[in-house]
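[step 3/7] inverse_fold.run input=structure_tokens len=292
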């Protein structure tokens, strides 16, 4: 598809280049000698050709960018539709069973409980999509203040310990003795930590461990979530942060694949960056925040 999208732009660019070249060549051919005017006209002709080349490159890049945006939009719509269709299909079957009188007594109660679960999944998906779109649009009204990251990380790890132990996974924090201060919104940073730790726990086998580390990094603070999971396929290091990415390691078994995308949006809104590193074994996700 990308090749077909570029053809019209290339044709338009070539037409501009040829027209500019012919106009410049005609201008140079008017004088009979090689005086100042001829030299000036030759320079103008060359400038016209250079301008045409620049326009050609710009048109190609604009067409390619539009094609990439359109492809990304279609992929996002298709992925969102898939994640909406699954719980909606289940909801329809459950409601029809109750409405037709097929489900009664304990079965009806169980179906109602399942309906509540599916409604919760849909609500979370819609909330995540809304939050992601707002962050990426720059519609942010967070309050930034000085946050002690060591304390925040310790609280988050403690809150995730029961979930980890239920899966036979150990989760710990390794923090320096001194204070780690960052200029951030504590609630949003904790959202990132929850997303990363939860994702790490899900992909770490029983008897494995997840370790959260933090350290100063120049004018920033770097946080790392290290797991002993199956790792990420080669070449997927950047794609795991895309919304609805379908890679096995990026998609949570009970999520919609938005956790890492939201994490990246939050980190970048703080002026930091987030990246993935092969842990061999496992995966390490790093992100930075400005020092406070």
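[step 3/7] decode complete -> sequence:
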């Amino acid at each position: 598809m990308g090749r077909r999208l570029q053809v019209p732009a290339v044709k338009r660019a070539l037409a501009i280049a040829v027209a500019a070249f012919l106009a410049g060549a005609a201008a140079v051919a008017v004088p009979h000698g090689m005086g100042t005017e001829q030299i000036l006209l030759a320079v103008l002709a060359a400038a016209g050709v250079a301008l045409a080349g620049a326009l050609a490159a710009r048109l190609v890049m604009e067409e390619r960018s539009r094609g990439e945006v359109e492809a990304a939009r279609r992929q996002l719509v298709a992925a969102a539709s898939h994640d909406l269709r699954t719980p909606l299909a289940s909801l329809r079957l459950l409601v029809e069973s109750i409405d037709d009188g097929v489900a009664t007594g304990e079965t009806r109660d169980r179906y109602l409980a399942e309906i509540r679960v599916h409604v919760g999944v849909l609500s979370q998906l819609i909330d995540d999509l809304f939050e992601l779109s707002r962050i990426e649009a720059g519609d942010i009204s967070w309050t930034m203040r000085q946050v002690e990251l060591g304390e925040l990380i310790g609280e988050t790890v403690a809150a995730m310990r029961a979930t980890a132990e239920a899966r036979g996974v150990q989760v710990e924090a390794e923090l320096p003795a001194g204070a780690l201060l960052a200029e951030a919104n504590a609630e949003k940073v904790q959202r990132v930590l929850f997303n990363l730790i939860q994702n790490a726990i899900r992909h770490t086998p029983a008897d494995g461990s997840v370790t959260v580390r933090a350290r100063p990094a120049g004018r920033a603070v770097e946080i790392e979530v290290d797991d002993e999971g199956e790792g990420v396929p080669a070449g997927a290091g950047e794609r795991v942060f895309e919304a609805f990415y379908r890679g096995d390691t990026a998609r949570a078994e009970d999520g919609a694949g938005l956790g890492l995308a939201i994490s990246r949006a939050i980190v970048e809104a703080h002026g930091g960056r987030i990246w993935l590193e092969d842990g061999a074994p496992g995966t390490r996700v790093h992100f930075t925040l400005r020092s406070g």
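[step 4/7] annotate
The chain has six helices and seven strands.
The helical segments are 2-29, 36-99, 105-136, 149-166, 186-202, 259-269.
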